[in-house]
Structures are given as C-alpha cells and as structure tokens.
Design brief:
Elements lengths: L1 H4 L15 E6 L4 H13 L6 E6 L5 H10 L4 E3 L1 H11 L6 H9 L4 H7 L5 E5 L3 E3 L4 H8 L4 E4 L9 H8 L7 E9 L5 H14 L6 H9 L6 E2 L5 E3 L3 H5 L5 E3 L5 H19 L3
Parallel strand pairs: 1-2, 2-3, 6-8, 9-10
Antiparallel strand pairs: 4-7, 5-10, 6-7
Helix pairs in contact: 2-12
Length: 277
C-alpha cells in the first residue's frame, strides 16, 4: 500500500474556488491512507482544496516529503507548534484530564489539536475513507461552512446514551460518526469538555470511542447538517465495497478488508486515467 501510494501521479494544481480546507490527523503509520483519501476527494472536486495534516506525534521529514511529492500544496501543523498552542490555550493546570488523556489516547487529538484556538468551522476527515463520486454536500459546505456530520451504522459512543444526555444537559444526536464532520473551535466550551471527559473516565473508565462521544456531545447544543447514510456509507458491505455506488466509504471494522482488496486500487486506477498514465 505504501508503495502503491507513491504510484499516485502528482496532482496538478486545481483552479481556485471558495476557501477550502480539510484537516487530517496523521503520521508515518497512516500517511498513505491520508494521501489516498485526500486524492480521491480532490479528484471529485472542481476547485482546489488545501489539506492540512496535523502531526499525530510521529511525523517526520520522510513522511512529509512523500505526501508533498503527490500533493505539493499540502500544509502541516507540527507537533511542537501544536503543543505550544495547547500550553497557551488548554494548559494542563486548568485542563488536566484532557491533556493527560490526549497523551495516552491519540484519537482525542482529532478534537483538541485541530480545534483549539481555531475561529473557523473546520472540516475534519479520517484517513480510512475514500470518495468515489462528487460529494455535493461537501462541495457546497466549502461555500457555506456549518456544523456537519455523517451517520454511523448504529450509535457507538462507548457510554450509555442516557448518561451522555444527562451529562450534556441536552439530547445528544445519534448516531454521529466522526469520520467526516465540521465543527467550529471558537464555539467549544473546553471547560465543559474537560468536565465531560473526567466524568466519563471516573464513572465508566476509558473507551476507544470516547472521542466520538465527546464530539457528538458538542453537536447537542447546535443544529447540524446530517449527511445521508446512503451516500456517505460507514462500513460498506461486500457488494458495495467491490462496486461502489455511494459517494464515500468509511472503512471501519470488518469493512477494512474491502479498502485493501478494492478501494485503493479503484482510486489509483482513476488517478492514472485522469492523468493519462
């Protein structure tokens, strides 16, 4: 897969459109999936999108050069800069639980590192996704950024939904999947997120899905655009995995096999055809 990623033709600079950015958390382990995901999105979008890759803690010069070789306008947020921003705006003295949990649970960095100090509504994507059709909802989003999320196959928050509703003081929407979502950092009450995180750990212990739960709780206070399950598919089945009809696949759980069997090959074929190679 890593070698296959380097066979992707260098993207030509697309025409300028509305200000368009998409954020990823990535590093040496998943750089090739980040590359395939962004490449598949840019192929389906008529204007330039700037990918911003936030260091997951292991980004190095070699990984950056591999990404830039294919997407020359990719931007990076380095770990030292992120740590400095966190120390200023989310100091451990005031947010001890979030800072400690972030060290042992890298998924939380998708929330803290990307949104702390941001006054934009940022579109955030997981790397284990591929776009197969023009994502009209996403293309429109770049013109009119707003809260947005895709839907999971079922509610998967790692904690009882009634408990989360009580903690949030509102009904937490279901079933949020944070593979693709838009959120405004300036509107996040980090004191509440610190409290929620601490209570979850104290009352139930850590969960692999805690970042998804915390993000879903943030959607409880403001209306958001909900992406269609038919077009934005979480965990595609075997038939959909082999012959995509949806706009996007998020390859979670057992569907990861379809990413490695079919998905990336389809994007590579499309990329080579689009570049005439």
């Amino acid at each position: 897969m890593r070698n296959a990623a380097m066979r992707l033709p260098t993207l030509s600079l697309p025409p300028e459109g509305p200000p368009a950015e998409i954020s990823f958390l990535s590093g040496p382990r998943f750089w090739y999936q980040t590359l395939f995901c962004f490449y598949s999105l840019q192929l389906q979008t008529p204007f330039k999108i700037t990918p911003i890759v936030y260091d997951d803690g292991g980004m190095d010069v070699v990984t950056k050069s591999r990404l830039l070789q294919v997407v020359p306008w990719m931007q990076f947020e380095d770990a030292p800069d992120t740590e400095a921003r966190l120390d200023e705006l989310l100091p451990a003295s005031h947010y001890p639980t979030l800072r400690a949990r972030r060290r042992t649970y890298p998924h939380l960095r998708k929330l803290t590192d990307i949104h702390i100090g941001s006054n934009k509504c940022r579109l955030v994507a997981d790397s284990d996704m591929l776009f197969f059709r023009p994502p009209d909802d996403v293309i429109d989003w770049f013109t009119d950024p707003q809260l947005l999320y895709m839907q999971d196959v079922e509610t998967a928050y790692g904690y009882p939904i009634g408990y989360l509703n009580e903690l949030a003081g509102a009904n937490v929407p279901e079933p949020v999947n944070v593979g693709l979502y838009g959120l405004t950092g300036a509107n996040i009450d980090w004191g509440r997120v610190e409290y929620w995180c601490r209570r979850q750990l104290d009352d139930y212990g850590p969960s692999y899905l805690q970042e998804q739960a915390l993000t879903a709780m943030l959607f409880a206070s403001e209306p958001a655009k909900v992406l269609s399950r038919v077009d934005y598919v979480v965990m595609p089945d075997a038939l959909e995995g082999e012959r995509p009809r949806a706009v996007l696949h998020h390859y979670v759980d057992v569907s990861k096999q379809y990413y490695f069997r079919y998905g990336w090959r389809q994007i590579l074929d499309l990329a080579q055809k689009s570049c005439g190679t």
